[in-house]
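Feature request, filed as a ticket because there's no other form

It would be nice if the structure record came with a short human-readable summary line next to the tokens. Right now we just get the raw output. Example of a typical job, pasted below so the devs can see what we mean:
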Amino acid sequence: MKVTIEVDLTKDEEKSLQRILRQEKEKWPAGFEPYAAAAVEEYARMFLGQRVFTRGSDVREYRLALLIRTAFGNKIPDEQTVGDLFQCTLSQSRALLRAVMSKYQYELSNAISNTLSEVLGKARKIEGKDAYVISASNENVVAELNKVLARKPGQDEIARQTRKLGTYELRAAAYEFLRDHFKSEPKK
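Raw output as currently delivered:
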């Protein structure tokens, strides 16, 4: 069903929304549509009795799951983005992402897989070392990769590089196992 709505916002509020949502002025207000679609779906499901929650945390988790499917293009967002949208700290956004990735793991399996594959696709070989480096601004993504590695006994886990934010190292054998698992092509 197609819905057209109008929201009464001041120019300053619109500018704030553009900044929070990291939207370019040229793509506004179209850039807000995926967020509005998630909100409309949330209400429709509630009215239909399909998603009626009594706890605030359940509502937040469902909202984030909807946003992952709509506004984030079926990919898991980084922790800072979630913190900005849900007005929470990094540790709270990390916990929210972990809860959503667990509770909605089947519904979001494509989003999780897309995100893990994308992270692996950007891995870089460390010169002179039998290892790769990956960048991930979401610890839950690294935890998911480590879960996949745990399926193969004796595999080394992905470890944070010392003194580098969002940068992790994994042995070549682990990288190759994950790449084959996700059929991810290395970026050249």
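Something like this underneath would help us a lot:
The CA atoms of residues 34 and 70 lie 5 Å apart.
The mean pLDDT is 91.
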